[in-house]
Every structure is written in C-alpha cells, then in structure tokens.
Task: structure prediction
Amino acid sequence: MSLIVKEAGKAISRADERAPISSLAKSNLRKIFPDHWSFMLGEIALYSFIVLLLTGVYLTIWFKPSMVEVIYHGSYAPLDGIPMSEAYSSTLNISFDVRGGLLIRQIHHWAALFFMASMIVHMFRIFFTGAFRKPRELNWVIGGSMIMIGLLEGFAGYSLPDDLLSGVGVRIVAGIIESIPIVGTYLMFFIFGGQFPGNDFIPRLYTFHVLLVPGILLALVGLHLVLIFYHKHTQYPGAGRTNTNVVGYPLFPVYTAKAGGFFFVVFGITTLIASFVTINPIWAYGPYVPDQVTAGSQPDWYIGFLDGMLRAIPPGWETVIWGHTISWNIFVPGLVMPGVLFTLLLAYPFIEAWVTGDTREHHLLDRPRNQPTRTGLGVMTITFYGVLVINGANDIIAQATSIPFNLITWFTRVGIFVLPPLAFLATRRFCLGLQRRDRELLLHGRESGQILRLPHGEFIEIHTPISDGEKAVILSKVDMPVVEAPPAADENGVATPGIKGKRRRARFSRFYFGDNVATPTRAELEAAAHHAHEEHDHEVEELTEAGKDIPARITD
Amino acid sequence: MSDNHGTDLEVAEHGDTPLFPLPPHHHRITDTDPRAARRAERQVAAMFGLSALCTIGFVVAYVAIPTDTFIALGPIGVLQLSNLVLGLTFGAAILLIGLGAIQWAKKLMADEEIVGERHPLGSPKEDQDAALEAFQTGLAESGFVERKIVRRTLIGALALFPIPLIVVLKDMGPLPEQALLHTIWRKGSRIVVDVTGKPLRPEDLAIGTLVSASPADLAAVQEAEGNQNARAKASIILVRMRPSDIKSQQGDNWDYQGILAFSKICTHVGCPIALYQQRQHSLLCPCHQSTFDLSDSGRVIFGPAARRMPQLPITIDSEGFLVAQSDFQEPVGPSFWERG
Result:
C-alpha cells in the first residue's frame, strides 16, 4: 500500500513541476457529493452519450454516407439484386457481414433512446425539485439545449441508413421545411441540393451527425459538468443538511467506484438489451424509394410528440394570400409549436425568479409539494406531451385496440386543451393537501392507530411524534411571501411608476404562493409539544385516579 | 403572515446550523463482522473474475460463430446468434465490472457521511474591484473609447466579415425556379404499373382496385438524371369505380370509363399514399392520416392536409393503352410559398 502512495507521490511531483496537479487534487479528490437515486438520471444521460461516441466511431469505420445507387449482393438474401443507396447497403453490411457490427449498431441505437429518455426524466427531476434556481439557471439552459440538440442528432442518426422508414421521415422533414413562409422552398433546395430526395442529403447529414452536432454536444456536456463541479451538487433536505453544507461521500474513493462503476452498469445493460432486443431492423423495411411507404410508419419515441401534433391539425389550415401559400397546418405544429415550447422551457428559471423576486442561492432542493404551482405546471406539461405522444401513435393504438384512429385524433384535438389544465388543478390541489398533512404531522404527530379508552368513556387516538429526520424534511419548506402590488398612487397623489408591471407580478405571486399552507412557527410547534405533553400527563392522571395501571387498548 | 415565521425559515434554509443534527451513523455488518467483510470481498473479486472470463468468451465467440447463424428464442423471436453471444459476453463483462465496483463501494469502502461546507459562489469584493480595474486600465490603454474612427471601422468590418461565409453557401443547391411546378407527365405518356413496368389497358383494372403506377419513361429519366427526383413527384395511383359513383372530378372527362388517376404524393408533407378504403372511395395517408375522397375530386375529408389530391387527366391512346392527357394541372406534393 505504502509503495502505491510513494510511487503516486513521485508521479505527482514530476507532473506538478509541469502543471499544478497537487493544488487541484488537494481540494477535489475528497470533494463531497450527496447521495440520492434521482441524481443518477443525469449520469445515465452522460454515460449513454459516452457509449454513443464510442460505438459511433466504430460505425463510421464501415458506414458509407453515399446515395449512389448500388446493386446489393451481400449476405442478406431477401434483398439480393435489389438496387439501393450505398448508405443502405453498407448498413446491411454492418448488420450481416461485419462480426459484432449488428451489436454495435444496436448498442448505438439503444443508447440514443436512453440518452434522450434519461435527459428528459433528469430535466423533470431538476424542474420538480427547483434545482434550476439561482445559481444554476445557466446549467438549466445548457441542459434544455442539449435535449433540443439531442432530438435533432437522434433524428439525423435515424435517417442515415436511408431505409424505407427513415426515408419517409426525411420526406416529412422536407415537407416541414417547405412550409416555412418566404424562404422555405429555397431552404429545402439548399439543404437537399435541389429537389427531394437528390443525392446530397445523406452525405451532408452525415457530417452534421458525426462532426458538427457531437462537437457541440461535447462542449455543452463539458460546460454542464464544470458548472456542477463548481456549484457543488444540490442536496435534498434532511437532518444535518443546510443550504450551506453538503452531506455525502467523497469523490475518491466512494464516487470514483460508484459513478465509475455505474458507467459500466449503463454500458453493460445497454449491451445486454442490444443483444436480446432487435431495434430498428432496417433490413425488414427495404431501401428507400420515394413512392413507397410502410404502414404504421413511426419515428423514434422522442420525435413522437411532434408527429402527434402534426396529426392533430384539422383539415384546411392553409391560406393563399397575394399568390403565396402559407401552410399553417404544417408550419405551426412542425416549427412554431416546438419553438414556443422550448423557449418557455429554457426561460422558465427566469420567469419564476421574476415572480418570486428571489435572489438568494439555493442548494437545498424543494419538495415538489411545497411548490404547488410549479409542480402543477410541470404535470401540465407532461400531460400535454403525453396527449401528443398518444396521437403520434394513433395508428398503432387503433390497430392494437380497434378504436378508430379518427376518434383518437378527436380525443387529442379536444384533450390537448382540456386535459393539461385539469392536470394542473388536480396536481396543485394534491400538493396543497400534502402540505396540510405535513403541518398536521408536525403539530400533532402521526396517527398511531391505537385507540385509548379513558375512564370516563371517551375514546382518543394516540399520536406518535415524528422523527427529527422527518421534521427536518418538512421544515425545509420556505413560505414564499406573496408580493403585494403597491397602491396606484401614494398619499400625495403621485402615480406609482410601473404600476402595471407590479400588479402583474403581484397576480403571478398570488398564483404561485397565495394558497400555500403556512409552516408552523416555532411558537406553534412549542405550544403543540407542550399541549401533547400535558394531554399525556392528564390521561395518566385520570387513569391513575381510576385505579387502572394499564389502559385498555384497541388496536385497529 | 410571513413575518410570523420568517426567522424560522431563514434558519431552515439559510442558516448555517441545521435545525436537527445529522443522525448517528450505523455500522454495516461488514464493518463489524470480519467474516461478512471477507464474504463481500469474495463477491467483488468473483464479479471481476467472471468479467475477465466473459471477455475471453467474447473473443472465442467472435472467432467461432459466423454471422449467418440464427436462433429462435421463444417469444423474443429469431436472433442472429453471433449478435446474441457477442452481446451477452461483452455486456456481462462490462456489467460485472460495474456491479463489482459498486458492491465494493457499498460494502467495503468507508461509508460515514461527511459534511462539506459550501462557500458563497461569487469572488470576493476586492477581486471584483481588481478585475474591473484591470479591465479599465486595459480599456484606457487600448484607446477603444477615444479612437472613435478605429472603433467604428472595426465594428463595421466585423459585422461584414461573416458575409462570405454565408454567400458561399449559395451553391449548396440550385434555386427552385419552376422545378416544383411540373412533373415528367406529358400528353400521351403511357401509364405503367410501377413494379413491373407493364403498360395498362382499361380492362386490366377491375372496379374497386387500386394500382400504383408511373410514366413509362420514368426509368429512362431516372437513369439520365441519376437520382429519384422524378419518381418523387410523378408517382400516381389508379382507381376504378362505377362511373355513377363519381360525384365530381377536377376536370371534365379526366377519367376514362370510371378509371381515375391521382397523385400518390400526399399534399400534407409528401408521404406516398396507398391505403385505399374501397367502399368509401377514400385514400388514407399512413403518415398522418389525411384522408381524401377520390370520388369527390380528391377532397380532404379528415386529417391535417389542407389541399385536395391533384388528379391526372387520362385517356387511352390509339393502341388502347392508358395515357396521360397532359401533366398535372397543379403542383403535386406539399404546399410551398411560391405555389399560390
């Protein structure tokens, strides 16, 4: 052991003469990270990304990003002699002739699905616990951007094999680009090198997929991690945890082993799934031919909500004005809606900070129930998203359940407006209910289920006080004050400047915090404790007077 | 209401001392029982050892299993044996390293929670001042503020310099011109079955059938152009219905004895359509479920499409084969700005 330390010391001092390694190691080797399962979601995304980079490099060895037509003569017999693009034939080659090629392709595809899924779930964790608050707003924006970019990157990768399924997807994207007013047609011609499908798209998309976007993602991932390191990880409330400390385990050795080990777990599980479950069997779809299509054509799941929105539009949303066509039916769901959605998403920390006027640093996480409006908005967004995902699979659902797809589409058209607000209201109520329960728990303890019969015949239920850990968690709630709007004019009749904005802010503040259940004050807590104590004494007194030592207990 | 418990809250979230102390540490069984610790040690070592065996297994499988062997695996379906075994060995090898490391951390490494302090994130005030001062000094030394003409020309030059980077992109593609307005259909183009290339006579089509078709010269055009652009627009479907079932058409006598030709490219975002609901004479797009009534000028009856399906006027030539009367009278496929 001491030999290792001695050798490490020598190596470090040699390195130290060239870069200040020791100073870095001194403060960071034993850096504390808090422990919670939900902190692993971002890790899954990070590790999936690394798996994607690794397997992606292997795929580039054999993949040929070319739309030149070749006649296939590889080992997949059903497609022998069929003309196809070189991109498709090289993907078949990877799947059937390169040993381990199919495995790498499937790991790559599965990792992409996990990458998107874990990023999105991670984002919801951040949202519901308020981890995006100061000082982490920028990291929220970086994370949200990565989801957006990941979506494009995933779509690009899905399109590269030039199979019939992905080719139809590309056709749809071309149609969406064409719908952009004024510049759409030009943009489409520039991107495709002329008319659809042309011969340029796959090679161009390839550079986008393997160079440009991964480069950007890698830079963002790096920045994201540096900021996490610099900010130190947030932690959940609990006994011993404050806004100014961080309780957990050191980077070396515990997190080196746990997080490092978790990379292998994510990689290993992805590999095992890839060996058992076929994903994107491009050989079954055939090569892309512009006048063919497969029924039940579906994008990868993370594109589903966009497809669902496209499907939900009723007929006829198109305007012809002065000889020009505006395709609202495509432009709005295909570009405007995602644009608005992502803008709101990225802007959310700043919107909430404006409402609360809160400029403090937050390192202790919120419990979702203590922010009923935020939590409601989150569930509302998930509901909105969910309805669209359902509609994105309306044909699949129709086939599986024999509900007509028209009915599912109508459900979406109505549900998209009705269900999210309902989800918001229900969630908000639910959170407020939980707050009330927390207050009860603090003041009166937990119902024990033990009924006590007093000598004079009264039945009471014994309440047991909750633990300090539970108290610490409940008491972490911060009662945000509701901002009141100032009067329109002061006593001298001078109008308050910016009164409209202040009133608007007061309305928002009421919307966010107006219904919150107040956390018990110290005085209330002490009174409750005192009362409980007294009651207990009183009971004992009465029981003793009655000459009974053991109370008659009925346990339910 | 907030004044009542303001102090408590400051303590709860912003105080340095927690309301309640960290609960006492509980020792694990591996901390107190050396036998349990040794057992954990053996478990970890077994996982690492097994991982190494799996890696060797991978190499053996790589050499031994050809890619053309398949195996039926109950409900999972038919799998490539090579993929399955390579994945199992490699996946297990990686997974076991991960599980071993985590087990090691959980059972054997110190697990007492450590409290670290957070410090305010900002730089100290004197650093902020020093930084601002350094910036001021640099700014003054550069003369960026006083030398207006230098500043303005620099800003101008920087604003213009990306222009070449954008201009060069111009040659990414040709301009649209008239390209989207026409297809290769001409007066007299023979209609052939798109799979076989066989020309069609009216009697080849029974009532209620749908046939995917294309112009006879499509293959030659594709050969000459070296791409599939012509196919992406010229593809059509032929349907035959009782002439009495036809409610309306896009032009007079554009059918031939109840045979109607429509574009196959959806007017929504361009998917090829081939799902025909015979009884309603409706054509359903598999991508977004736009539905067109072919007996009524191809109008949209459901789904997100805004435009009817363009109809191709057809007739027969002197030899009795189905031919186009002309090109489509309107652009096919998705709408675009210049379409009008």
Notes: Residues 445-555 of chain A form one domain. The beta strands of chain A are 32-33, 69-71, 83-85, 245-250, 319-321, 324-326, 446-453, 459-464, 553-555. Chain A touches chain B through 134 residues (CB under 8 Å).
